[in-house]
Each structure stands twice: as C-alpha cells, then as structure tokens.
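Field: COMPLEX_INPUT
Field: COMPONENT_COUNT = two
Field: RESIDUE_TOTAL = 496
Field: MODE = joint
Values follow.
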Amino acid sequence: MFLPDPYLAIKLSLIVGGWCVLVGAPIAILLGWLLARGSFRFKPVVSSVLLVPLVLPPVVTGLLLLDLFGRSSPVGRALAALGVRVPFTLAGAVVAALVMGLPLFVLSARSAFEAVDPRFDELARSLGMRPWRAFFKVTLPLALPGIGAGALLAFARALGEFGATAVLSGNLEGRTRTIAMAVYTLLDASHGGREVRVLVVSSLLISLVALAGFEALVRWQHRRLEFARDAG
Amino acid sequence: MPAEVRRVPVPGGGALEHDRRGSLPAQPGSADAGAGFDRSCPASEPMGGAAGVSPRPPRWRLAVSVGKLPEIALESDAPGLAIRGPSGVGKTTLLRIIAGVERRARGTIAYAGTPWLASDRGVFVPAWERRTGWSPQDALLLPHLDVRSNLLSAARAHAQELDAVAAGLEIAHLLERRPRHLSGGERHRVALGRALLADAQVLLLDEPFAALDDALRRRVLTFIAGQIEARPRALVLVSHDARDAHALAQEAWNLSSQGLHRER
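Field: COMPLEX_OUTPUT
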C-alpha cells in the first residue's frame, strides 16, 4: 500500500482551514452581529441550533451532511446540476470542517460585538454615517480582533476535524486526506513512523501558532475596549 | 428692539460680538428668509401674520419624554441654549434625544420648523440626517483611530479647518496619538474638535470643559465662540458652570425633576 504523503496532507489541511475562515467569516460576522445586537423572534432558536454541531457526535453531523448534499436530496441535485459535487471532494472537507468550526466562530464574533459599546455606533450615526457605514467604519473594526480570534479557533478546529470529514468527504489521498485523515491511515500501516512524526510535529506547530495568535487577538481586543470603557 | 450684544474677550484685543438674536443664516422654512431672527414675534405668541404668510416656527420646539424622565418642554429662538441641573436628572439623555440616538423618546422635536421627531405621526429623522455635532460627556473617541482620524471621523468633516481647530483647541501636537495615550482633558478637546469639524447645524456639547483648568478653559471657550461666529451653528450646552453658559449661550435652562424651566 502507498503511504500517505504527509506534506500533501498538511497542504490540504491548510487549504481546508483557509477556506473555512474565508467562507465562515461573513457568516460569523452576520450571525454574531444579529445575535449580539439584533432583536428578532427566533433568536433563542438560532442560537441553540448553532450549537448543535458542538454537542452532536461529529460522525452523526457528517451523516446528516451526507444526506443533505447527497444525490438523493434536492440540495445535492441542485448543486449537481450546477456541476458542484460536495461528497468525497475537497469542497466536502471544507463543508464538514466549516459546520464543525462555525459555532466557535459565531460565538466569538457574538461576544466581540457584545463587547463593543453600542454608543460608538450611535456616535458614528450622529456624525452623519448611515448604519452600514457606521458598521464598517466603527463597530466592525472595533470587534475585528475578537472576530479574528474566532477565525483562528475555527481554523484550528478545521485542522483537527475528523469525524464529520471522514463521513462526508472520505479519505482520498491528494483530494481529501487531511492531516487527521493521514495520521489515522498511518496508524494502520506497518511502517511510516517518519510520516507520522512529520504530521504530529507540524500539527503541534500550527496549533500552537494559532493559539498564540488567538491569545494575542483576545488581549488586543480587551486592551482597546478596556480603555474605551474606562475613559471613552 | 435693540439687539442685545454681549462681548467675549479675545486674547490680543478686540471682542467677538454676539448678537443675542443669533447670527445664523436664515432658517429653512422661515417666512422672511435672509432677514435673520425677529424676536419681536416670538413663536410662543399667537401668530397674527398677514393672510397667506405662514408664521415662522421657533428655532427649537421640544416636548419629549423618555422612560423615567419628566416631560421636557422647550420653545426658544436662541441659537445657544445652556442646560443645567442636578446630576442624574437626564441632561445627557436630553442631548441624546436631540441627537436622535435615543429611540425610546416620545413626543415632538422640531428644529427650525423641521420636525425631527413626531412620535404620534411616526416621524423620526435618523441621527445621520440631523447634522448634529455631538461631543459626549465621556468623549467616546474611537479607540482604533489616531487623533487626526478621530477629528475627521464625521461623514462630511470640514477637513480644511483641521489645522485651525487643532491649534485653537491646543491639540495640534497630539494628532498622531491614539486616544488611550491622552489625558481626560485632551480627550474632551478632541471630541470638541470632532464636533466642530462635523458638518453640523447644531452642536451638542455635554460637559466639554469639566476636565480643563481655568486658563485653558477660557481660551477654549473663546475659540469655540469664534468658531461659531465664523460658521454659525446652534448650540445646546450641558454644563454645571455658569461661565460656560455665559460665554456660549443666550439662554439658560434648568432641568430638574419638575421638568425644564428657563433661568434667563
């Protein structure tokens, strides 16, 4: 049997993590802002549904996603008609990791927005900014470090994603075999100790860098808003 | 009726003349546009104008209530109003209502005949269309921007006046700093500058001089009076200090649990 290529797996993991952050950011910003500032009828429902991937066994989440994007579902057929195939592709790995990482991302964005004094937004409006402009010039920049921290969490979560990914996108060398998949595959192999070591060390490095970045962003946000609370 | 003129001393001689009737351009909707204000026909009196001539509305007409506050009613033609009163009585809330950021406000506000709020008719002019220059009590400088960007953060800031305003408020040496590296008095002056540079028709100043020593306070007051002279704007000033009120406002009102009442 061929041994998994560890460097290819690292590359795929970084690609999946990057796509998770890119696709997740607008969703996390929108949902985080709505949950922090909005008042709408189904807010408790939205905020609970969002947490489902955190508590559901990842394999079950993967199975539900497979049902949703499979050929037998309307969503899957619609995407297939557009030429997009999700199961057993890199897109599937991104979807699985995104769904698993989104709760952390949205919750971080929500608390980032909640930490921003709403009077900054009011002030911006009194300075002649329409709500959209006030959001992009004032509220969003002030929440951005916290949102970035959430992005790093989602990225790190995407690197570690195994259960949902295994079900939805499988373990295809060069296509969906990410770090976690490659390590799992190597556990069954009789040799390949070097490959495992490369994967373990690089996972540790990536995770530590992500966590250090997370910590720095949280402190940055805190320092900035601490000052704003103290002195305006 | 002779114009009542007050003089504000200016360093280096001379005086700024403050016509008590105000020197603002004609109000929109006024019947005799261009003629300034005519106090001989206050809006609070019944309007007996000639048929076909619409009565001129007063500059300010407020009758608002919000939450636990007493109903606030005010009618005035003075361009500068000073608001005093015990703390916690709602002076800041009054400014927030005028700025249009206090959505719980009920009642009516009209400035120069333009309704800003008429809750019974569902009229609410949003904050960004009221053209106010709000300087909040705690400054609320944007922490992610330096002083220069804060000064110019209004949507239509008068950037060409930046240097003059920064010099006048004695903050020109702080332009590159972040707000967290400023003292309380410096932050207030930056917030004042931001309000002065905004394309405002009404300045809303909330205790802007509280953290300034006497000499600096006098210089800043004189500068603001000069700014208003140069580009006329109405003003609502919340201040505990009668000297501020004298320097900038033509009328003083007292806000208490009994409501808003004219002092002078």
